[in-house]
């Protein structure tokens, strides 16, 4: 059974995930600075690992249906480290979308309930984008 209690490890993991997203956005703003993007990736992966646990993280990334996304994300990170941040981020973005495609319906429901911006996600065009993934596989 999944535990929804918020212990210190999960709080630190959520903080690291947030900082990872922050550094990644900052790296894109500063014209694809590879140092900030690399730091963002490392913090994001370590934050996810701490939040959901090491065993669940390994099961998620090593699942047969997630291999394409895992490999793309890893190759994109390697390309980023080698000095081609724009190409690396494109490959990583593809891997990220493939890995987390099962979460789009959940994200859609959450986004539609945001008080001020929810109406944007209820527009027919935006809703059809999210409905495309309804009924698809759900990762771990």
TrEMBL record:
One of its GO terms (biological process) is retrograde transport, endosome to Golgi. The chain crosses the membrane at residues 12-32, 38-54, 75-104, 110-130. It is found in: Golgi apparatus membrane. InterPro entries: Got1, Vesicle_transpt_Got1/SFT2. The keyword Glycosyltransferase does not apply. It is a multi-pass membrane protein. Keywords: Golgi apparatus, Membrane, Transmembrane, Transmembrane helix. GO terms for cellular component: cytosol; Golgi membrane. Belongs to the GOT1 family. This is Vesicle transport protein. The lineage of its organism: Eukaryota, Viridiplantae, Streptophyta, Embryophyta, Tracheophyta.
């Amino acid at each position: 059974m999944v535990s929804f209690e918020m212990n210190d490890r999960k709080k630190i993991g959520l903080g690291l995930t947030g900082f990872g997203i922050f550094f990644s956005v900052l790296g894109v703003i500063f014209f694809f600075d590879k140092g900030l993007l690399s730091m963002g990736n490392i913090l994001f992966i370590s934050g996810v690992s701490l939040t959901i646990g090491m065993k669940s993280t390994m099961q998620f990334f090593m699942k047969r249906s997630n291999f394409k996304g895992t490999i793309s994300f890893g190759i994109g990170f390697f390309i980023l480290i080698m000095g081609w941040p724009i190409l690396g981020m494109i490959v990583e973005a593809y891997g990220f979308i493939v890995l987390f495609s099962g979460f789009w319906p959940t994200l859609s429901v959450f986004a539609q309930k945001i008080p001020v911006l929810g109406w944007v996600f209820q527009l027919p065009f935006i809703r059809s984008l999210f409905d495309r993934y309804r009924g698809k596989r759900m990762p771990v």
